[in-house]
Amino acid sequence: MNDQTSPIKTVPLLINGKLVESKTSTLIPVTNPANQEVIANVPCATEGEVEQAIASAKVAFETWRNTSVGDRARLMLRYQHLLKEHHDELGEIVAQETGKNLEDAKGDVWRGIEVVEHACNIASLIMVETVENVARKIDCYSITQPLGVCVGITPFNFPAMIPLWMFPMAIACGNTFVLKPSEQDPLTPTRLGELFLEAGAPDGLLQIIHGDKGVVNKLLVHKDTPAISFVGSVAAGEHIYRTGTKHLKRVQALAGAKNHMVIMPDAQKKQVINNLLGSSVGAAGQRCMAISVAVFVGDSRNWIDDVKNALSKVRPGIWNDEEAAYGPLISPQAKQRVLEFIKEGKKSGAECILDGSDCVIEGFPDGNWVGPTMFKNVTTDMSIYKEEIFGPVLVAIEVPNLEDAIELVNQNPYGNGTSIFTSSGAAARKYQHEIQVGQVGINVPVPVPLPMFSFTGWRKSFYGDQHAYGKQAIRFYTETKTVTARWFEEDIDTGVNTSINLR
Ligand code: NAD
């Protein structure tokens, strides 16, 4: 942490429609992961600033909840338009602060824009059921209503997409929002906030409060924050789910992952290798849907060396190096953690057939580089199999048949994403039916659903309410009320009804 005298730009907070400088004395440096240069400082918002943010969101809610659904949709339309206009600029901000290559960074922004597009359709999305004449001249229908001040806590690895999973849907539903983005890459979410103001968002609709877990903990226990959306690691997710629900809040916590690709011997080898490269080391393996375990079924085990040879030709580089397949890890600590896993994997008896521990990129000696790494002869008791490494490390496991592959995946502590590569419809259908994982790809390596569907996860990959980010997010960000109505008519005399039956 730095003191406040640093000449580097301090990222502003967004409170009540204004970008304001925090009064905190606690700043965290934001660094370029390719060379450790400090590119900004992020403030840890004070208790008073957190209070102000929640208070202005609370005041704004009273007006916003009564704003017509058409006006809410039009705000999202203007925002979507602005985001598309600024797509390249946003992509560059993402790339510079995360180190992702530019194409991947633009993909991060694009997947967020898709959610805003979805939110433009809010009127149709919040329409609910009506039944006329549930009893004589009595109608029954549901009403969908917003909750109030919703909170979002987001991770570093998709600084555009994941904030955009949350606040556009919540706000389109009629809520107001307090976002606490990752302290490791706060510049992208701040720019998203500026563009939201430019799109005409009224004051108080969206607040952005920066900081670390101390700030999160204030949001989790506050009496005026009824709903918490979280995306991040299992450790933080469990804490946030436990604390939020203990304070009787609605919580959804999307957490970590260990994603398997099952490779059947009847799959197309070239397709398997290409897809495995992109999905295992793309974004330096820092995707919650990255493939980190390749499950070779039967004779497909003969392709292990081909995968290794292909991976050995892939190299990382800086964000605007067009030849680089991926960038550095987000921080020296993240790199160190990955190197520890590689060491542990070797110690535990797995065979490291490609080791990226000593990766050096010319001109960037201080970058958080890890080259593509691959292990074989891995067993399920090893930490490199059981735990999320979140780096460009692929572990290969061999199993004799599809049944064993399914059992292996279903026994893993995580259940975020998985894929099967096969030319057999029967094998794919069986896999889809029996696998206990949230997102399933059939000959698709990273099956992140579009927002007309929703994102989910099994076991340690998702805690709490399963209605995340897309279509089903309406269920998370609203309360449903059922109204049973007898529209008054002079000639109806129902008399005294001592039963619960309608008449
Ligand atoms: P992280 O858990 O370290 O941080 C996420 C957010 O939580 C940040 O805003 C951080 O400030 C806050 N936080 C961290 N520790 C906390 C604590 N103890 N108490 C309160 N708040 C805390 O995660 P990260 O390293 O930024 O992101 C990577 C992780 O996110 C990976 O595990 C990845 O699998 C997961 N992820 C999951 C999904 C999904 O959809 N399931 C999507 C993206 C990322």
Question: What's the helix and strand layout?
Answer:
Blueprint: E1 13-15, E2 18-20, E3 27-31, E4 38-43, H1 47-64, H2 69-85, H3 87-98, H4 102-119, H5 122-125, E5 130-135, E6 138-146, E7 149-153, H6 161-172, E8 176-180, H7 187-198, E9 206-208, H8 213-221, E10 227-231, H9 234-246, E11 250-254, E12 259-263, H10 269-281, E13 291-297, H11 304-312, H12 332-347, E14 351-354, E15 373-376, H13 383-386, E16 393-399, H14 402-411, E17 414-415, E18 417-421, H15 425-434, E19 439-442, E20 458-459, E21 462-464, H16 473-477, E22 478-486
Parallel strand pairs: 7-8, 7-10, 8-9, 10-11, 12-13, 12-18, 13-16, 15-16, 18-19
Antiparallel strand pairs: 1-2, 3-4, 5-6, 6-22, 11-21, 14-15, 17-20
This protein binds nicotinamide-adenine-dinucleotide.
Structure, described:
The chain is α/β, with parallel strands linked by helices. It contains 16 helices and 22 strands. It has a seven-stranded mixed beta sheet, with helices on both faces. The protein has a six-stranded mixed beta sheet with strand order 9-8-7-10-11-21, with helices on both faces. The chain has a three-stranded antiparallel beta sheet with strand order 5-6-22. The longest helix has 18 residues, at 47-64. The N and C termini lie far apart (69 Å). The chain binds nicotinamide-adenine-dinucleotide.
